[in-house]
Amino acid sequence: MTAPLTDDAVGKTVVDVEGKELGIVSKVENKRGYVDPNPSLAEQVLASVGWEGEDKEDYVITEDMLQRVDNEVVLRGEL
Q1: Closest CA to 61 of 14, 3, 2
Q2: What secondary structure does DSSP assign to 14-66, as a single string?
Q3: pLDDT tens digits, one per residue of 13-43
């Protein structure tokens, strides 16, 4: 089992199993991560200091979609 999604994931880069960047975690709520696929530099800085936000464009990831969470959030290959 991977580490749970917590507020510590906010601001981390989300990548697929091959390392392709998919966006950044903009918010975590109820064990769900909201991923901004096209973050501006300002959004990246705000997320890194804990100012969470969610846009209409954000997509949701859940803990069962994760391969691991460390310095980045890595999604499993077989989604």
Answers
A1: 14
A2: EE-TT--EEEEEEEEETTEEEEESS--HHHHHHHHTT-----TT-EEEEGGGE
A3: 999 999 999 999 989 999 899 998 876 666 6
